[in-house]
Amino acid sequence: MNRLFGSVRSRATLGATLVVAVALFVTGAAVLQALRSNLTAEAGTQAEGTARAVASELAARTPYDQLSGLGSKSGPVQVVDEDGNLVAASEDLQRISGTVTDRVEPRPSSPSSSPSASASPSQSAPAREDDEDEDDEDDDEDTEAPRSQSTPEDEESEPSLAPGETGRQTTFSSGAATMDDDTADYRFAAVDVQTHDRGLLTVSAGAPLAAEHSAVRTALTVMLIGFPLLAALVAGMTWVVTGRALRPVAGIREEMAAITASEDLKRRVPEPGTHDEIARLARTTNETLAALETSVERQRRFVADASHELRSPIASLRTQLEVAAAHPELLDLDGAVEDTVRLQHLAADLLLLARLDAGERPVDARVDLAALAREEAAGRTGVTVDAESAEVAGSRGQLARVLGNLLDNGRRHARETVSVSVRREGDRAVLAVADDGDGVAEADRERIFERFVRLDAARSRDDGGAGLGLAIARDVAVRHGGTLTVGAAPSGGALFELRLPLA
Model-level pTM? Predict the structure, then answer.
């Protein structure tokens, strides 16, 4: 299991599938809620329309048995007076819940609000036609008592209604009703109406929620079937796409494994033709392999050159010692000492190069290049110094080694004189060493800083050294954050310039 989900392909597929599944779940829940709310509101609107139609008929003095909303084809309708008595109900209504009352059989109204109690006003309809103003005043007086009997809740929710007026507020509720042995869920709407002859009545009408339930069940069924299929499709597509995208990575890994096994640094990983992160990874890997190949080749060449350089003085010293052992009178003591010193210098150079290659950081000290130039030039013939004070940060010993190597190189190639100067240029200190020799050809001005390089192949090793001095000087300059370059001197010889940041 850990191996399966340890791959990028598996994790990407699992992550994408989980994200899609959560999004589908949230979206599905929101859709179902919106669908249920819309259909419930639509049923409420339908129920409100029925309730207001019945209320309008009641306001127009329509008798209970002639109300059009109480037919068997209509939904459940209840008419309740202000005392809570059911005064009218739909035909075939057998059971109801969720409304003002759960009664289904109408009961006679109280005497104050029953039709019989109001017969006198209804029989005097012609008189009301003759004197409309007086009748309105009589009606207001007749309905004053019922209005005064309304509950505090009704007075807070809606102001008192005038006779024949229907309340603006509608109260919605959900419940169930059984009509003609058919039980279903309904959305009920309750509306108040103030009648002329029957007081304050509340009409409750219901609209079936069968369409809402059916639509929600259908949508839920579609989601339960479609969402898993969609999630599976996303998982499959993600698996395929990530597999195609990561295919070059497998090729890179296989090639790197082959390079590691064969130790052949000339090989390169395949670079895909795309311009994505994997292509950049392949190019970077090849650049790293190229740099590693160059470094390994340089180390091999260094070891070979060092072995070659060490072979000559060791062989010479051994020969002298063997001759001295057989013939003490033939011992060349000066030559043995010279070879020993040469070995010592070569060993010191190799040790310093090894430390530089290992990334040894110079000691953070302040060094005055002018004073250092005068110290190194002292005791050397033909060397002149023209220096102004310039302090740099670094290792005094390593910087002295650089200047010593440059002076030795200058004296080796100069005809008569070597000049040393120190000056400031902006935020840099410049130490220049110039000679009046033949100079360095432009094509060789970078090659001379390579290790074990000698431009004069016919020159004696004893005079020319091992070819490490300039290489060491360049490496020390770089470690100190500076540069070492060679150009043409005004006198025609070589001009070496060491540039270091001022302390």
Answer: 0.50
